[in-house]
Specification:
heterodimer; A: 415 residues; alpha+beta; 11 strands; 53% helix; elongated; B: alpha/beta; four-stranded antiparallel β-sheet; globular; binds magnesium ion
Chain lengths: 415, 225
C-alpha cells in the first residue's frame, strides 16, 4: 500500500462529501478552462478573420475604428464612403505591394431569415471589387468546380449583371453557375427600391471567412447600382514590408487627404480584443470566485474529515507515523480530491466547447466565423496543474492540524 | 530469553492540569520491563493504568522522573520526538481495537510498515495472519469481523513490525470472557515463541495471575509488587 492508495481509501469513506467537494473543484476548473479557451479562441478567431482579409492596412472614411473593425468583419450597417481619387493618389506610394479598392453595399434579397446566420438574413452584402487587384490580394480564392459549377469564372470585362457568390450565400440561396439572383437596392439619394436580376457566373470555395457570405460584383457596377459613382468603402493595402515604423511612415504620408484615415489591421485587432475585454474580466471574476469557493470547500471538507478521524490519526501515530507522514497523508487526500475534480472538470469544458462557443455567439455577435473557444492540451494541462497547486495550498492547514495532533489526546477523544 | 532490561522507569510522575487543580495520575512509580517477560498492571478504574502504559509506550512523556526505553532517555522529549523511540520497538494494542475501517485485515496488519518505510513482504503478512488465526480473513473489512477477530487484527498489526515489547491497554476489556481468554492465550504464545516482552493492563485477576509479574496501582502509586 502507498500513501496515495491509503489517502484514496480515506476519501471513499464519505462518498457524497467527496463527490460534492470534487464537484465544486470541477465546476471551478470548467469555468476557468472555458474562460481560458475563450481568451485563446477569440484572439485566434480575430487573427484568422483578419488574415483572411488579405491586407494589413486599410484606408477608410474618417470614423470610429471599432465600427471599421466590425464593418470589415460583418459588413455591418452604417457604411460611410470615401472618394475614389484617394485610391488614385495612394496607389503611387512606393511602399505598397498590393492595393485594391472595395465598395460595400447592402441589398435586400428575396426570401427571409430562418435562423440568425448571416447567410440567412434577408440582406445580402454586395461587394464591388476590382478583380485583378482583389485576387492579387487574396490569391487563395478558388472557384468551385463540379456539377453545376463548371465553367465558373470571374466577371467578363464590361459585364453589368454578373456576380460571383461566396460559398455560404450560394448554398443558402441554392444558386449554381448560370442561375439568376435577385436583389433589391435602394440607390443613394432615392427612396425607391429597384430590383435587379444578376447572373451567377461563379461560386467560390469555402474560405471560412466573411467572404463566404458575400456576393461579389464588378466595382463600377456596384457603384452605379448604389448611385455612388466615384466612391469607395475601403481601400485594402499590403505593404512591401509591414512593421510599426513602416506603418507610421505610411500613415504620415497620407494624413494629407482630409476625408480618410489609415487604419492598420493590428489596430483593428486590438480594438476587437478590447471590445470583449470587459466581458472577459467579468467572467474572470466569476471564475475567481468559483475557484475561491472550491478551495474553501476543499479545506472545509478535509478539515471535517481530519476532525472525524482524530482518534484514528492518533492510532496511526501510535503505530509509528511521524508528523511529516501524517502531513503527507492528509496532503495527498487534498491533492486527490482536487485532481478528482480538475480532470473531469477540464474534460467537461473541452467537451462542451461547442456549446460555450454557441452561447458566446448568442451574446457577442462580432462576425468571426472561426470558433470563439479554443481548448488546447496546454490549456488543460495548465488548469490541472493549477488545481494541483491550489490543492497543495489548501492542504497545508488541515494537514498541519492533523500532523500536530497529540496521539494520547487524539486516541482518547476518538473513544 | 535474556534478561536485558527494555524499559526502566524511576520515580515516574505524570500530572494533569484540570483547571486550577493538579491531578497526580502517576505519583512516583518505579517499573522495569525485561525482554521476554509478561508484566500485568492491575488496578481500579482511574488508578493511572492507562497513564502509565502511555508512558511505557512512549506515547506520552512523564512530568518528572526518569524513563529509559530501548536504551534511550524519554523524559524531557517533546511529543514529536517520541515517535522515534516507539518506532520499530513497541507494538501497541488498544482496548477499542482502533482498526482502519477502509482497509482490509491484511492492509491493517501491514499498515505500520508504510510509516516505517519498509516494504510489505506478503509472506510476512501471511505468517502474522496465521499467527493470529486470521489466515482466512485477509480480504475482509473490520466491520465484517467479531470483536475477538478485530483484537486479533490489532495484535497482528502490533506484531508486524517485530517489536521488542508488546503493550496492551485492557486488550480484553471489550471482549466476552471466553474470547478474552483466547486473546490472552495468543499473547502468551507470542511472548513464549517470539521472545517479546508483554505489558498489559486488566481488571481480570484470573488473567493477571497467568503473567510473570503483577503490579497493582492505586491512586497513581504502586501498592503491591
Ligand atoms: N488528559 C487528562 N486530563 C486530565 N486528567 C486526566 C487525563 N487523563 C487521565 N486523567 C486522570 O488521571 C487519572 C488516571 O487516569 P487513567 O490513567 O486513565 O486511569 P485508568 O486507565 O487506570 O482508568 C484519572 O483520575 C483521570 O481522570
Ligand atoms: Mg484506562
Amino acid at each position: 500500500m502507498t500513501y496515495a492508495t491509503f489517502a484514496w481509501r480515506n476519501l471513499t469513506r464519505r462518498p457524497v462529501r467527496t463527490t460534492l467537494t470534487a464537484g465544486g473543484v470541477a465546476l471551478a476548473v470548467a469555468v476557468a478552462v472555458s474562460l481560458g479557451g475563450f481568451n485563446l479562441g477569440y484572439r485566434n478567431a480575430i487573427s484568422g478573420s483578419i488574415e483572411q482579409l488579405g491586407f494589413q492596412v486599410m484606408v477608410m472614411a474618417k470614423g470610429c475604428p471599432y465600427e471599421a473593425a466590425t464593418l470589415m468583419l460583418k459588413g455591418g450597417t452604417g457604411l460611410i464612403y470615401l472618394p475614389e481619387d484617394a485610391h488614385e493618389q495612394i496607389r503611387t506610394d512606393p511602399d505598397i505591394a498590393e492595393i485594391t479598392p472595395i465598395f460595400i453595399g447592402i441589398a435586400e434579397k428575396q426570401g427571409f431569415a430562418l435562423d440568425g446566420s448571416p447567410a440567412a438574413s434577408s440582406f445580402a452584402i454586395l461587394t464591388g471589387v476590382d478583380t485583378p487587384s482583389f485576387l492579387a490580394m487574396k490569391p487563395w480564392l478558388q472557384l468551385k468546380t463540379g456539377r453545376g459549377y463548371d465553367g465558373g469564372r470571374w466577371f467578363a470585362p464590361g459585364a453589368t449583371n454578373e456576380i460571383v457568390m461566396g460559398y455560404e450565400v450560394a448554398e443558402y440561396e441554392q444558386r449554381k453557375v448560370g442561375d439568376t439572383f435577385y436583389a433589391t437596392i435602394v440607390p443613394h439619394g432615392s427612396v425607391e427600391p429597384r430590383q435587379h436580376a444578376f447572373t451567377v457566373v461563379g461560386v467560390l470555395e469555402r474560405t471560412g471567412s466573411q467572404d463566404d457570405g458575400t456576393v461579389f460584383l464588378p466595382l463600377h457596377v456596384a457603384q452605379q447600382l448604389f448611385a455612388r459613382d466615384g466612391e469607395l468603402t475601403i481601400i485594402g493595402i499590403k505593404l512591401r514590408e509591414f512593421n510599426a515604423i513602416r506603418m507610421r511612415e505610411f500613415e504620415g504620408r497620407w494624413l494629407k487627404i482630409p476625408e480618410v484615415q489609415v487604419v492598420s489591421l493590428e489596430q483593428v485587432k486590438g480594438a476587437l480584443v478590447s471590445l470583449v475585454g470587459t466581458a472577459q474580466t467579468m467572467v474572470a471574476a466569476v471564475a475567481l470566485i468559483a475557484i475561491l469557493v472550491a478551495v474553501i470547500g476543499v479545506v472545509n471538507s478535509i478539515l471535517m474529515s481530519v476532525h472525524e478521524r482524530t482518534g484514528e490519526i492518533g492510532v496511526l501515530k501510535a503505530v509509528g507515523a511521524n508528523r511529516a507522514q501524517i502531513f503527507r497523508l492528509v496532503w495527498f487526500e487534498t491533492l486527490l480530491i482536487c485532481l478528482a475534480g480538475a480532470i473531469p472538470g477540464s474534460l467537461f469544458a473541452a467537451g462542451a466547447a461547442r456549446l460555450t462557443d454557441a452561447a458566446l455567439r448568442a451574446v457577442l455577435n462580432i462576425g468571426v466565423s472561426q470558433s470563439l473557444v479554443r481548448i488546447t492540451p496546454e490549456l488543460l494541462g495548465i488548469a490541472i496543474l493549477g488545481a494541483v497547486i491550489l490543492g497543495l495550498f489548501a492542504g497545508i492547514w488541515p494537514a498541519g492540524r492533523a500532523a500536530s495532533l497529540r496521539p494520547v489526546a487524539a486516541i482518547r477523544s476518538g473513544e | 530469553m535474556n534478561n536485558q532490561t527494555l524499559i526502566t522507569g524511576r520515580n515516574l510522575h505524570r500530572h494533569y492540569q484540570r483547571g486550577s487543580e493538579t491531578v497526580r495520575a502517576l505519583d512516583g512509580v518505579d517499573i522495569d520491563v525485561r525482554a521476554g517477560e509478561s508484566v500485568c498492571i492491575l488496578g481500579p478504574s482511574g488508578s493511572g493504568k492507562t497513564t502509565l502504559i502511555n508512558l511505557l509506550s512512549a506515547l506520552d512523556a512523564p512530568t518528572s522522573g526518569e524513563l529509559i526505553i530501548g536504551g534511550r532517555r524519554v523524559d524531557g522529549l517533546a511529543e514529536h520526538e517520541l515517535v522515534n523511540i516507539r518506532r520499530g520497538l513497541l507494538g501497541y494494542v488498544f482496548q477499542q481495537f482502533h482498526l482502519i475501517p477502509t482497509l482490509t485485515v491484511a492492509e491493517n496488519i501491514a499498515l505500520p510498515l508504510l510509516f516505517l518505510g519498509r516494504r510489505v513482504d506478503p509472506a510476512d503478512t501471511q505468517r502474522v495472519l496465521e499467527a493470529v488465526g486470521l489466515a482466512d480473513r485477509a480480504g475482509h473489512r473490520p466491520n465484517e469481523l467479531s470483536g475477538g477477530q478485530m483484537q486479533r487484527v490489532a495484535i497482528g498489526r502490533a506484531l508486524m513490525i517485530k517489536p521488542r515489547v508488546l503493550i496492551a491497554d485492557e486488550p480484553t476489556g471489550n471482549l466476552d470472557r471466553a474470547t478474552g481468554e483466547a486473546i490472552f492465550d495468543l499473547f502468551q504464545t507470542t511472548v513464549s515463541e517470539q521472545g517479546v516482552a508483554l505489558v498489559l493492563t486488566t481488571h481480570n485477576l484470573a488473567l493477571a495471575e497467568r503473567c510473570d509479574r503483577t503490579l497493582t496501582l492505586a491512586d497513581g502509586k504502586i501498592v503491591a509488587p
